[in-house]
Amino acid sequence: MQLHTYFRSSAAYRVRIALALKGLAWDPAYVHLLKDGGQQKAPSYRTVNPQGLVPTLVDGDAVIPQSLAILEYLEERHPTPALLPADPAGRAKARAMALAIVADIHPLNNLRVLTYLRGTLGQGEEAVKAWIVHWTAEGFAALEQMAEGPDFCIGRAPSFADLCLVPQMFNARRFGVDLTPYPKLVAIDGHCQALPAFQAAAPGRQGDAE
Amino acid sequence: MQLHTYFRSSAAYRVRIALALKGLAWDPAYVHLLKDGGQQKAPSYRTVNPQGLVPTLVDGDAVIPQSLAILEYLEERHPTPALLPADPAGRAKARAMALAIVADIHPLNNLRVLTYLRGTLGQGEEAVKAWIVHWTAEGFAALEQMAEGPDFCIGRAPSFADLCLVPQMFNARRFGVDLTPYPKLVAIDGHCQALPAFQAAAPGRQGDAE
């Protein structure tokens, strides 16, 4: 399998954790989001991923964009270890927490949106930082209530929810978001970070890290 | 089952289509997104949905937020008719198209974000409309390439992709987005709109329609 990835992309980071937890080998294809005006916008990459976003997983003939679609695909093709609870209600909880990040925090704070705020809307760095903090805090407040624990977001094994939470916590720290209102999330993040698979997937451990 | 819904919420609309296609009965619990300063923000609703967003599906003990988590739950509990293709690669395509809407178009253009643009960032209606058109056009351009057809987004049966596309097309028309660059999406939308389940789920057919 080949993963089109960028070390600091939190969407790619989610997939790298899944691949590591499932013990699947993969080759990186690096897409630098800042160099050359953004390599993800190049016509050659758009043929792989029409949205011009990372990650994309290539597995034989299957070319799959969207991190959560990739997680579901890996779960169907390589079900062990499971990254969703066994019961439908538990699976729904894990997916809902993942989506609260994937749909309601991350897309508001990713590079293309911040570029639009700075460029087209002429916002300064203070307003851009306030925007990032606002949407992260709103999402984390809900996630703090939704997290069940005791070790991970849902129970005693990592699920899609944790795979999405850890990269978002990384982003939150990078942007200086105050995490003290979210003690459960901080504890879950710490529990995840102790596992080798989460460590291997971290931005600083990638071949394209700067 | 009970669905917390608002007639014009495109996320609730997705779920209403799934329930109709699967022939499942449900009771509406109306959440008016504008009245009372937004009923979705009321503490009583936050106990159901910590994010303060619609929809939420209640099925016995299971209380499920996030439209795509609800679609996956319904698919697992009520697999016929299937709303995902049978093969993992096809399922991944349908999910990726759904997520290109759920994660990369809709969250940028929903009420809470437009309110922030108008309020905190002091943007006028022209800038807000340009914002909506920009993210819709960027997403639809990718979806136009990803759509396989011949009848629906993927093949000859509706999938999650179509359940997300139709409400987003409804929004696009409401906001005056030019749809002529997306003939495949317009044709798929027309094909869907001819089906009774899609008609029954439409905003104008809901008990809280205005």
Structure characterization notes:
- Two copies of one chain form a homodimer.
- The first copy, chain A, has 210 residues and is an alpha/beta fold.
- Chain A folds into two domains: 2-81, 3-Layer(aba) Sandwich (Glutaredoxin); 88-197, Glutathione S-transferase Yfyf (Class Pi), Chain A, domain 2.
- In chain A, 51% of the residues lie in helices and 10% in strands.
- The first copy, chain A, contains ten helices and six strands; from the N terminus they run βαβαββαααααββααα.
- In chain A, strands 2-1-3-4 form a four-stranded mixed beta sheet, with helices on one face. A two-stranded parallel ribbon of chain A has the order 5-6.
- In chain A, α1 (10-21) runs parallel beside α3, α1 crosses α8 (160-174) and α4 (88-102) runs antiparallel to α7 (125-146).
- The longest helix of chain A has 22 residues, at 125-146.
- The radius of gyration of chain A is 17 Å and the shape is globular.
- Chain A starts with a strand and ends in a 9-residue tail after the last helix.
- At the A-B interface, β4, α3, α4, α5 and α7 of A face β4, α3, α4, α5 and α7 of B.
For the structure shown, list the relevant keywords.
Glutathione S-transferase Yfyf (Class Pi), Chain A, domain 2; 210 residues; 51% helix; 2 domains; two-stranded parallel ribbon; Glutaredoxin; four-stranded mixed β-sheet; homodimer
